[in-house]
């Protein structure tokens, strides 16, 4: 069952200005902008309203009624920016929060209120938070956005419409509660339609001919006969779990308990849907309005709670709870299908060994960083630096086989390093070479192995590779580029053997 909360800020901008300029508290002031050569009021403080000063009043007329009225410039973009910031804060209470410009918010609270003990405590908690920070606020809960909007702005207590009762709640409200255009409202007022109950039972065809489609659309949205879209300020991750705290959490043990509960809930859902996470993000919201995030990644899809908890515990010491954490949000933005039969890694004979290897690599990545763990797969290329590519994950299968009939170094330089050599005959290996300012005398050598350029990619000389061993027993992979007699060949060091 869908439930929505509409939050209305009757004096959003003037309340915000009083919060940032406390000396204005209790004073009559307005925000105005220039329109057709005269200043028109766009926002009125609470202290100015008793003098009959309203939205749309000309400043000169307002000062005639109250000469001491303070006037400040109105910024048309300020309300949208402010609502956006407040909406992000409201993610404490619902993952789906939308801006209802110019003075409200809409929250999709389906499945959220039980975490606070029901709809009444939930509504009191949110509105109480705003009131303590200096905002005038009114909220209402209903099955539809339209009914919640109408009740918040035009209704009376109670501000919670029971499920399926939005029609009864709308009957006594004015037509303006349906979010109709001013011109249409004037026409309805002239015909004596002062309440929704005056026309809600009139046949829809008659209403359409008399007032147009907008009235029918708004009425259908409020009654739940037509769906109304809600655009969240922050897109919701498909896999996300929330855990609010009844009391602010400050201890490491409390953070770990909350994290474990979130992981257990999330992993059960991943198991039901046959997927595992590759990336998880924990966001903690503090009571001072600040938030912190931790992120982990896995080498293969995982839904193993204990393993994921170990990865997070490597980073939880970075969380500074401050005065306390009131909400934990865990999301898995990257998931992959996880089947019972997965590609064997490292040619492990026991699947348990494969999982242990992956878990070990995840812990190493948590300590050293994800860039410290690399896996490569073969490619259909002869040039050594093109013969491999980074794997997307540990479970990504090989599309071609490794060339194991010839030796290859365990460490291959990304760019071959030029060296000096002494060679007795043109096709012989070097008897010594200079690397990093030191001459290495060759004790043993094997080769050459000729590797041609790949003509479909580039043209150039071939390479003749040699495996050489110096007197201390270190083994190197070097090659000659070009031929003696034809030109002056160059020698390069390309890798190191174990």
Description:
Keywords: DNA damage, Transferase. InterPro entries: DNA/RNA_pol_sf, Rev_trsase/Diguanyl_cyclase, SulA_CellDiv_inhibitor, UmuC. One of its GO terms (biological process) is DNA repair. There is one protein chain. By secondary structure, the protein is of the alpha+beta class. The protein folds into 3 domains: 1-236, Reverse transcriptase/Diguanylate cyclase domain (Alpha-Beta Plaits); 240-367, Dna Ligase, domain 1; 411-496, no CATH class. The protein contains 12 helices and 19 strands. It has helices spanning 12-20, 59-65, 78-89, 119-132, 145-154, 166-170, 182-190, 204-211, 213-223, 252-272, 305-313, 351-368; strands at residues 4-8, 29-35, 38-44, 70-73, 96-100, 104-108, 138-142, 240-249, 275-286, 291-302, 325-337, 376-378, 388-390, 411-422, 432-435, 438-451, 463-470, 475-481, 490-496. Strand 5 and strand 6 (104-108) form a beta hairpin. Helix 5 packs across helix 9. It starts with a strand and ends with a strand.
The proportion of residues in beta strands is 25-35%
- Give the beta-strand count: 19
Strand arrangement, largest sheet?
Answer: 14-15-16-17-18-19
What is the assigned CATH homologous superfamily of the largest domain? Reverse transcriptase/Diguanylate cyclase domain
CATH architect. name of the largest domain? 2-Layer Sandwich
Q: Roughly what percent helix?
A: 25-40%
Nearest-angstrom radius of gyration? 35 Å
Can you give the mean pLDDT?
87
Q: How far is the first residue's CA from the last residue's CA?
A: 64 Å
Number of helices: 12
Task: Please give the largest β-sheet.
Answer: 6 strands, antiparallel, barrel
CATH topology of the largest domain: Alpha-Beta Plaits
The assigned structural class equals alpha+beta
Provide the CATH top-level class of the largest domain: Alpha Beta
Query: pLDDT under 50 segments (min length 5)?
Result: 341-352
Instruction: Based on Cα principal axes, name the global outline.
Output: elongated
Q: What is the total domain count?
A: 3
């Amino acid at each position: 069952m869908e439930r929505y909360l509409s939050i209305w800020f009757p004096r959003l901008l003037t309340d915000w200005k009083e919060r940032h300029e406390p000396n204005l508290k209790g004073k009559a002031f307005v925000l105005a902008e220039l329109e057709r050569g005269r200043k028109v009021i766009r926002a009125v403080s609470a202290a100015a309203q008793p003098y009959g000063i309203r939205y749309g009043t000309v400043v000169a007329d307002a000062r005639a009624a109250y000469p001491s009225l303070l006037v400040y410039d109105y910024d048309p973009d300020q309300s949208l920016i402010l609502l956006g910031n407040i909406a992000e804060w409201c993610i404490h209470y619902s993952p789906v929060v939308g801006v209802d410009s110019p003075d409200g918010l809409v929250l999709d609270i389906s499945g959220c209120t039980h975490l606070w003990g029901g709809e009444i405590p939930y509504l009191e908690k949110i509105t109480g938070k705003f009131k303590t920070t200096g905002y005038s606020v009114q909220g209402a809960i209903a099955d539809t956005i339209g009914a919640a909007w109408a009740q918040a702005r035009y209704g009376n207590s109670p501000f919670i419409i029971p499920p399926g009762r939005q029609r009864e709640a709308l009957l006594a409200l004015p037509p303006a509660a349906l979010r109709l255009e001013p011109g249409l409202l004037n026409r309805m007022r002239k015909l004596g339609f002062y309440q929704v109950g005056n026309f809600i039972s009139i046949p829809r065809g008659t209403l359409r001919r008399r007032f147009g489609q907008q009235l029918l659309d708004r009425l259908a949205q409020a009654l739940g006969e037509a769906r109304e879209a809600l655009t969240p300020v922050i897109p919701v991750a498909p896999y996300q779990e929330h855990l609010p705290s009844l009391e602010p959490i400050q201890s490491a043990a409390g953070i770990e308990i909350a994290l474990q509960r979130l992981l257990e809930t999330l992993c059960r859902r991943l198991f039901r849907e046959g997927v595992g996470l590759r990336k998880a993000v924990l966001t903690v919201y503090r009571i001072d309005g600040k938030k912190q995030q931790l992120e982990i990644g896995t080498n293969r899809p995982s839904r193993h709670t204990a393993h994921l908890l170990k990865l997070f515990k490597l980073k939880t010491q970075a969380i500074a709870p401050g005065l306390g954490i009131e909400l934990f949000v865990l999301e898995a933005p990257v998931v992959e299908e996880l089947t019972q039969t997965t590609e064997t890694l490292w040619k492990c004979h026991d699947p348990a060994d494969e999982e242990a290897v992956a878990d070990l690599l995840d812990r190493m990545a948590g300590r050293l960083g994800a860039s410290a763990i690399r896996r490569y797969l073969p490619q259909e290329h002869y040039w050594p630096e093109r013969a491999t590519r980074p794997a997307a994950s540990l479970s990504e299968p090989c599309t071609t086989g490794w060339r194991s009939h010839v030796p290859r170094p365990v460490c291959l330089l990304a760019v071959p390093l030029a060296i000096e050599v002494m060679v007795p005959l043109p096709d012989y290996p070097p008897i010594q070479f200079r690397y990093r300012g030191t001459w290495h005398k060759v004790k043993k050598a094997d080769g050459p192995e000729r590797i041609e350029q790949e003509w479909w990619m580039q043209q150039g000389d071939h390479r003749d590779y040699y495996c050489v061993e110096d007197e201390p027993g270190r083994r190197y992979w070097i090659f000659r580029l070009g031929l003696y007699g034809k030109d002056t060949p160059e020698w390069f060091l390309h890798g190191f053997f174990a």
